[in-house]
Amino acid sequence: MPSLTLDTPELAQQYDQVSDLQYEHGQFLLAGLQLKPGNALLDIGCGTGRLAELAARHHVGQSGRVVGVDPLPLRIELAAARTLPQLSFAVARGEDLSAFADGSFDAVLLNSVYHWLPDKAAVLNEAFRVLRPGGRIAISSASRERPHDIQRILAKVLADAGLGRGQVGGSTPYRVTHAELATQLETAGFLVDEIRLRRFADHFPNVEAVLAFSNASSFGNFLGDYLPDVRARLQAALRGTLEALATPSGVLLHRNLHFALARKPA
Ligand SMILES: C[S@@+](CC[C@H](N)C(=O)[O-])C[C@H]1O[C@@H](n2cnc3c(N)ncnc32)[C@H](O)[C@@H]1O
Q1: To bridge 223 with a disulfide, which of 14, 65, 144, 169 should be the other Cys (CB 3.0-4.6 Å)?
Q2: What is the Cα–Cα distance from 212 to 14, expressed in whole angstroms?
Q3: Strands of the 87-91 sheet, one edge to the other
Q4: 192-204: buried (b, 16+ CB within 10 Å) or exposed (e) per residue?
Q5: Residue 209, class by beta-carbon neighbours within 10 Å (0-12 exposed, 13-18 middle, 19+ buried)?
Q6: Residue 82 pLDDT more than 90?
Q7: Is 219 in the pocket of ligand 1 (CB under 6 A)?
Q8: Is there a contact between 151 and 174 (Cβ–Cβ < 8 Å)?
């Protein structure tokens, strides 16, 4: 299970700087929510708040409201530096949104968070509760049937080391299939409008940029299941594999993500 106690000020700061990929694909989710001026949006697992700020600036108008929650205090500290009247942040896990009343949001967003959640039912039930009837939810999640390139590479590194029959070392550990995502949403009471698999080609300038992205995105959990010396050896093997893939223009890696849009019945 991912730990929520391994984050550091450096990782939080780094995430703010290297999360362009999440920020860019998160905009598909925002567009899908079709927010209107005056709407209230809850961003669950908002990280350092980049997407929440964008939503507050451009999607809900000055009469609207965007609230971002995340269990990592260091990330919420950075998010809270984004000062707009219609934007606020709080430390909270998606499994416990008791700070918010039933039906108090028009929309809920989970961008690159779902694959970190061991108890998806608890989070979906809370999201359903805080949404008004007819309110919408948008989720992006790593895909179990189509792993990211980095996950395949990690799986090989672990297998070569005689490890890794289980989850892949804290890299998007709870990813889902298309069918699982649909069933989980429906079980929580949502009507599913759309689930699409999108494939992204990411160009990293060098191997260090791949590792920085993976470390910061995993808030200290990247290969975190292993003891420090084993982890160091795995990191070295991963670096070697990535260096073999690098070209003078950098490292090209693909990610595959499910994008789901669903709504609470009116
Ligand atoms: C890759 S970051 C995505 C951050 C942000 N949504 C974005 O698009 O940049 C994953 C986030 O999920 C958060 N997270 C992990 N477990 C969570 C939970 N149980 N409830 C809510 N958020 C969680 C982490 O704290 C982290 O900030």
Answers
A1: 169
A2: 8
A3: 87-91, 65-70, 40-44, 105-111, 131-142, 251-263, 191-204
A4: beebeeeeeebeb
A5: middle
A6: yes
A7: yes
A8: no
Q: How far is the CA of 113 from the centre of ligand 1 (A)?
A: 5
Domains and CATH numbers, the chain: 9-148+172-201+256-263 (3.40.50.150)
Q: Are strands 65-70 and 40-44 parallel, antiparallel or unpaired?
A: parallel
**Ligand 1 pocket, residue 19 CB under 6 Å:** yes
Give the pair of three-digit tokens for residue 40. 């209230």
Summarize pLDDT for 84-136 with one digit per residue, the tens.
999 999 999 999 999 999 999 999 999 999 999 999 999 999 999 999 999 99
Question: pTM of the prediction?
Answer: 0.96
